[in-house]
Structures are given as C-alpha cells and as structure tokens.
What we know:
By secondary structure, the protein is of the alpha/beta class.
Amino acid sequence: MVRRLSEGVWLLELGLFPPLASNAYLVDESAFDGESDALTLVDTGLWWNEPTIVDELAAVGYGPADLDRVLLTHYDLDHVGGLNRLVPEFDGPVSVGTDDLALLEGHVDPELLHHKGLFHRASRRLFPLPDLVLEPVADGDAIGGFTAYHTPGHNPGHVVYHHADASAAFLGDLVWEDDGDLTTPFWGDSYDMDRLRRSIADLSARIPPFEIVAMGHGDPLTVGGDDALRTLASQV
C-alpha cells in the first residue's frame, strides 16, 4: 500500500510477511526548491513481493521508465531484489555503498563461516542482479539533493541517505521500528552489532535535523526523527 509521508515523499509498502515485508521510498525532487528535479527510488524490496515495486509505483502514477535513479541503502535481497522487476524499462544508475558494491560484484568474499557472509556468498550466485550501471557511494557524497552517510554494521557498506529539503533520512536497516520507537535490527541479520551501534551514535551526532525516519522495516516516523535517533543512540 502506498502512503504519502510528506510533499514529494511516498512510502511503498512491499508485502509478504516479516521480515520479508520491506519498505521502499519514492522521492520526487521536483516538489522542492533545490537544483535537482529527479525522481528517485530508495531501495526496491524483493522481486516476489506482493504488491510488487511496479504495482506500488503505478499507484503513485509512475512506472519504472520514469525513475531517474535508484539509491540502495545496502546489499540484501529484500532491498535490492526488486531491481529485477524494474528492467528493462528502467536503465538508470544504481548507487550502492562502496563496500557493499565490492561484495555484490564478487571483488570481496565475506567470511564463509559468518552467518551473513555465507548468505551473501549464496545469494549473489543464486539471485544475480540485472545488468545495470552500479555506482559506488562514499561517506559525504551528494546525489541530487541527497547526502550519503556510511553507516557500517548491518552490512560493511551500509549507507544512509539524508535529504534536507524533504526533511527525511532514509535509514535502511541501520534501525528498525517497533511500536512507535526505533530499535536495532535482529543480531542474526547483521554482520557486526557493535559496529552498528557505533554507527547509530556517530550518525546521530553529525546528521542535520530531519523529521521523517524512513527505515527498511516498520512504520516510518513522520515527526521528530532526529530526536528519535538520538534517543536510540543513548540507549544502545
């Protein structure tokens, strides 16, 4: 189900069942006064979500060909798998954190005996992504009106995207939502929980103010986002 979070920002709810149900977000920068007027999709869900990412885009009045770019918070199937639903109509750039791009492209092999490392080794063989232009993202990079923040822990190359004009932070799986509060993801779904906690504290100290917390799993917060992040940082 599509939900408008604010002017120019939509939640695309990609169903199945937790934890495979996930969120993607559509940002129309033409709604703001900045230099960019791009239509950006943040994360894509799984390819077998019902409704699909294409269904959710259509509910807002768009199709894959209308997208100018895709931003990925990290390489997990429930965030990147929907790329297979967007092609061939979408042929724009896909941005992903530098360390996760190396993982995705097979330049780095995660630890075979690590629970998530084994999963990633298998998933990139069994579920290859379509042939699209993949662009590395580093801490501080600007992409249109978005600023990237490297937030490792859940994945080595996990990235958060902040959009000042939208007053929104797209946090991926740095945090989850539970009963109106922010919490950390399940430990078994992350590479390094200690590093993830440090990333939460670091991000809360340096990210500009924002209202909307757009996370990968759970119900987005539409007010007081930076306060909620600082509260979580003080607890972990």
